[in-house]
Amino acid sequence: MSHKALEKLRQRFSSSIVETHDFRGDDTAVIQREALVEVVSWLREVHDLELNMLTDMTAVDYLQQGHEPRFEVVYHLYSVARKHRLRLKVQLAEEDPVVDSLCEQFKIANWFEREIWDMYGIRFKGHPNLKRILLYEEFVGHPLRKDYPKERRQPLLRRPENEIAEVLARRGKARSLPTATE
Amino acid sequence: MTTIERDVEAHDLTIVHMGPSHPAMHGTIHLKLALEGERINKAEVDIGYLHRGFEKEAEAHCWQQIFPYTDRLNYVSPMLNNVGYAMAVEKLLGLTIPERAQYLRVIVGEIARISDHLTYMAAQTMEMGAFTPYFYVMKGRDWLWDLLEEISGARLTHSYVRIGGVAWDMPEGFAERTLAILPKIDQIVVELDKLMTRNRIFLDRMQHIAVISAEDAISYGWTGPCLRASGVDYDVRKAHPYLVYDRMDFEIPIGTDCDNMDRYLVRMEEMRQSMRIIQQALEQIPPGPVMVEDKLVVLPRKAATYNTIEEMINHFKLVIDGIRPPAGEVYSYSEAGNGELGFYLVSDGTGRPVKCRVRPPCFMGMAAMEQMITGHMVADVIPTFDTVNMIGGECDR
């Protein structure tokens, strides 16, 4: 059943597909990022595919695998009516981690994309409110990137440096403060 | 200035913060409500207070060491998380587990589902002011936890499931004790039903509140009881039967009004159906091993580890290097208490995952909260938040 989705996708968007595979029966298509919105809208509308649910969306950082480009954004689509699935992937380079937002197509994309921004620093063009979701706004960096050390600690909330210096000076303990990124 | 603050200035609204430390915001969330009188004009949902970095930790551990972390995702039904994660790694390995282990997973999973729904019932009723049902229901949950403790050794963080099967067989007399407890649980469900379902106050606060249409529910990626309450017939156990669910005779309750009341009624019926599944599984369960025979996956028996050099090396290779699945990626899904629990795993062929993403089903419910409560009264926030059954450990990971 689900092979049909991959085949139809190949016929319709042959020039936008980078590669496909079906490891362990999970049909997967890597597509060019420019085609994402068009492909997703088409998959949702086509009568016998009806991939109308974005069940999951995440990103992967392949820094340690020496994989170029570095990031992949992964979309898991599901058809409630037809009961089949398809995985779409978009590859993004480190210097330009931007992809179109799917907020128009799926309401849940709003939160998924905020989480990916939070964890990986990938931006979504057209997102209405792209801010951190699980972490707090003052957090520095994107912790699921492979070059973010697991042991790094950050203060929960940073007061402005001058404010901290003032407090410490008042207590006679003025000294140079470590920055949060250390 | 956030959008909510702009609105407040433009329309002369009052801002009220509910949580993160609020008696009814169990699981620690923060709601920022812009009120017009007592009506919610705009709402902002702020999650993440229980974020522990599950994925980051998982990437630093061997595949089999991640089980204790999965216990702490949805901590009212850890068994279902154990099962979901084990299934994902087995899919990556291309492993089929023995039949008896599959039955045991169904049995402990369904016990966990009942305890999950009972916890929901307890929170739902108590936070609306009905304190009595809370005690009735918690009593039942304790009996179920006694069973899970008996089989796994732990009341809450079971870690009973293993890659390739389950840790050990059920103890002697477990089936009889389970079958003896089920009618008592059924009695509790009847009591709860009598106390709440036709209760005027309860109905007034549940009916036609927070209506989410089937179309919106799908767009929000809802699964589980919430999606079924919106009238969509999707249950992973029926749509894509895994383990031995295809041999079980059970029904999927579907809602019609898409409101809080339906989300309550669907869970009510699901508990009864889970009891049917447990009974059937206990009748059908065949004898046999509960773990696969595969030296690349399963630790050798302790006696062998201590007495033979080969088994000792086998043990150390598995502990130090871990199980090494082939390079590749899988998305595996199972029906957890709140809906489709998905695991997206990426392996590069080493003993540690490149990526271990968990798709938390209550995350989608929280994303829809804003739409659900807008236009309703402040008092409606509590029952609505309860019907989503947000579990902090799962939502925030």
Question: What does the secondary structure layout of this molecule look like, with pairings?
Answer:
The complex is a heterodimer of chains A (182) and B (397).
Chain A lengths: L1 H11 L4 E5 L6 E4 L4 H10 L7 E9 L9 E8 L6 E8 L5 E3 L8 H12 L2 E3 L35 H10 L12
Parallel strand pairs in A: 2-5, 6-7
Antiparallel strand pairs in A: 1-2, 3-4, 4-5
Chain B lengths: L2 H9 L2 E5 L11 E7 L2 E8 L7 H6 L7 H5 L6 H16 L5 H29 L3 H22 L8 E2 L2 E2 L7 H24 L2 H7 L7 H6 L4 H6 L6 H4 L20 H25 L17 H6 L1 H13 L6 E9 L2 E9 L7 E5 L1 H13 L7 H8 L3 H5 L1
Antiparallel strand pairs in B: 1-2, 2-3, 4-5, 6-7, 7-8
Features:
heterodimer; A: 182 residues; alpha/beta; 5-stranded mixed beta sheet; two-stranded parallel sheet; 4 helices; 22% strand; elongated; B: 397 residues; mainly alpha; 3-stranded antiparallel beta sheet; 17 helices
Percentage beta strand of chain A: 15-25%
Q: What is the C-alpha radius of gyration of chain B, as a whole number of Å?
A: 22 Å
* Largest beta-sheet details of chain A: 5 strands, mixed
Adjacency order of strands in the biggest sheet of chain B: 1-2-3
Quickly count the helices of chain A: 4
Unreliable residue stretches of chain B:
none
> What does the radius of gyration of chain A come to?
21 Å
Tell me which protein chains meet in the greatest interface and how many residues each side has: A-B, 35 and 45 residues
Number of helices of chain B: 17
